[in-house]
Write a structure and sequence with these properties.
Length: about 170
Amino acid sequence: LFLPPIRAFAARVGRLVESRSDEHLLLKLRQAGFHDLTTEEYRIRALGQAALFTVAGATVGIALRSPPLTLLLALCGLLYGATRWKGRIDRAIADRRDRLRLELYTVNQLLAIHLRTGAGPVQATQRIVDRGTGAMVEELDAVLTWVRSGVSEPDAFRRAAELTPEPNAAR
């Protein structure tokens, strides 16, 4: 009974903590590999972190019995808590970009081998996805999912190029 209003309130207040648009935030979450996290859930988590660190800072200030220090520590906790999830997303994107860069050469070689043996681009991609693991294989699996859902092959590969965090993988 109380959960939907609390979620709506947290989502609205969460927009103050995380002001990026939903589309931009969804792209960042996808690039970071957080496919199961919605923008609303992300904002609620960021708001929760901000509230937690604000309370922790205020508690330390109250324990020290200094009102100015209480306010300062609460403000520092708010800033740290509000930026913690954003930093986590940025670090995850950088890690994923590095993994993609490392896997790209091998996947390109495998694609070239399969294409030389007469397979088409989608069939070669399917063979790699069936046998491989890793961040690059996840990107290619998304392409195959889009193709199966009715997106044309060139559009699916273009979409993957637009969404990937690694610019060399877009080529």
